[in-house]
Design a protein that fits this description.
The protein is of the alpha/beta class. It folds into three domains: about 150 residues, Spo0b-associated Gtp-binding Protein, Chain: A, CATH 2.70.210.12; about 170 residues, Rossmann fold (3-Layer(aba) Sandwich); about 80 residues, GMP Synthetase, Chain A, domain 3. The protein has eight helices and 18 strands. Strands 10-11-9-12-13-14 form a six-stranded mixed beta sheet, sandwiched between helices. The longest helix has 15 residues. It is elongated and about 105 Å long. The structure holds guanosine-5'-triphosphate and magnesium ion. The site of magnesium ion has 5 residues, from α1.
């Protein structure tokens, strides 16, 4: 089974149901009051982190997730039902990005954590709410708000505390097997490991433990796609400690230089991680050779631990060194900030622009084009009964400060206000 760790999906929140425009009808009553109910909410789409789903494979069959529309309101003040939300289960460690903005939409690190990825639209209000002493029979109702629609890229990162990096065949999987509960495949040929594997390493006290990730081997040129490429580095991009695994018998200094070059070209911040060197396979050389190699590696300024995964030597020291080096998660997070999308609905700022239009009779009409401030969206919601709603809307906009804003920039009695094509006259009442 292929290990899917990156996937694009489309998420479409449901539209809100329309509010109803209705009037009460009863025997012997000529004219009843407005009794249109509200539309229901459109369905919202969430991601939920679950344990035990190792890859995004499961989602492969479905690329588009669309929530339902809220039901429309009806007469006799009956409100439409809300549509059901959709919950998409993804593995713990999934990060969701908005494809268009590149921002992080959701970063799911703990089981059960949920995050909205596409907002369902609010239902429209029925005409009953727009009744007032001066407007007893409102012939308009709101239509539902459109659901949010976007493409989302899901990336799975194994959430490991420590990551093993090294050339193929260096003994990474052997170290994972020797240090943890994991059972990776080990073989005497390169690229045995094809997808990342996690293991849990226990400390001397059972309650302290960390996770260790084994990833496929990296070779020179991996950043240009050689070998298995560098895709897998995503899985160690959040580890707090890196272990460079080097085969003592195969030019470790050159290998480490090459490894660091490849890591740097993938993500320079990887080199700022706490790291140590596991000089492996010391059983294959004389001890003076491994001492000499250790001296040569001093130039990298990293702790060097001599180990043999095969003979299980130096493993306790390695384990202890790892426990000592692990920085706290908080400290780590501070140095690896990601730009996260805010949950708030952002209203674009209000802009007022004056246009002068010459009329047929030679006079000029002053027109104020209004954009932003949330006014266009309001109008959209009455698209179906715009003429009937115009008076209500102009009153609403006045209360929301639009007229004051216009006055401040020099609007005069008799000017025209144009919001998304809806025009009305400006009255300066003060
Ligand atoms: N003599 C000796 N052999 C070792 C030692 N550690 C690993 N090996 C052998 O080296 C070979 C490669 O080991 P793996 O653990 O599969 O290496 P890897 O780094 O995971 O390799 P890839 O998954 O291909 O990147 C296997 O034949 C292991 O048995 C060691 O300490 N001493
Ligand atoms: Mg391996």
């Amino acid at each position: 089974m292929a290990f899917r760790d990156i996937l694009e999906i489309e998420v479409i929140g449901g539209n809100g149901g329309d509010g109803s425009m209705s009037f009460h009808r009863a025997k012997y009553m000529a004219k009843g009051g407005p009794d249109g109910g509200h539309g229901g909410k459109g369905g919202t789409i969430y991601l939920r982190a679950v344990e035990g789903v190792e890859s995004l494979e499961r989602l492969l069959g479905r690329r588009i997730f669309k929530a339902g529309t809220g039901n429309g309101g009806e007469g006799r003040l009956r409100n439409g039902a809300d549509a059901e939300d959709i919950i998409i289960d993804v593995p713990v460690g999934t990060t969701a990005f908005d494809v268009a903005s590149g921002k992080v939409v959701a970063d799911l690190t703990t089981p059960g954590q949920m995050k909205m990825v596409a907002r369902g639209g609010a239902g429209g209000r029925g005409n009953s709410v727009f009744a007032s002493s001066t407007r007893q029979a409102p012939r308009f109702a709101e239509i539902g708000v459109r659901g949010q629609r976007r493409r989302i890229r899901l990336e799975l990162r194994l959430i490991a505390d420590v990551g093993l990096v090294g050339y193929p065949n260096a003994g990474k999987s052997s170290l994972l097997a020797a240090l943890s509960n994991a059972n990776p495949m080990i073989a005497a040929y390169p690229f045995t490991t094809l997808s990342p594997i996690l293991g849990v390493v226990k400390g001397d006290h059972d309650e302290v433990r960390f996770t260790l990730a084994d990833i496929p081997g990296i070779i020179e040129g991996a950043s240009e796609g050689k070998g298995l490429g560098l895709e897998f580095l995503r899985h160690i991009s959040r580890t707090r400690v890196l272990i460079y695994v080097l085969d003592v018998a195969i030019d470790p200094v050159r290998e480490l230089e090459a490894l660091q070059n490849e890591l740097r070209s993938y993500d320079p911040s990887l080199l700022e991680n706490v790291a140590l060197i596991a000089l492996n396979k010391i059983d294959t050389v004389d001890s003076d050779v491994s001492m000499m190699v250790e001296d040569e590696l001093a130039e990298f300024g990293l702790p060097v631990l001599q180990v043999s995964a095969a003979e299980r030597t130096g493993l306790d020291e390695l384990r202890r060194a790892l426990f000592e080096l692990l920085p706290s998660r908080e400290l780590w997070a501070q140095t690896h900030g990601l730009e996260v999308e805010s949950d708030e609905i952002v209203v674009p700022p209000l802009e007022l622009e004056l246009r002068e239009e010459v009329q047929k009779d030679g006079s000029t009409e002053r027109i104020w084009l209004v954009t932003g401030g949330g006014f266009e969206e309001k109008i959209e919601r009455f698209a179906r009964h715009l003429e009937d709603a115009a008076e209500y809307l102009s009153g609403l906009f006045k209360r929301q400060g639009l007229y004051n804003a216009l006055r401040r920039v020099g609007a005069r009695e008799g000017d025209t206000v144009d919001i998304g094509g809806l025009r009305f006259e400006y009255f300066d009442e003060e």
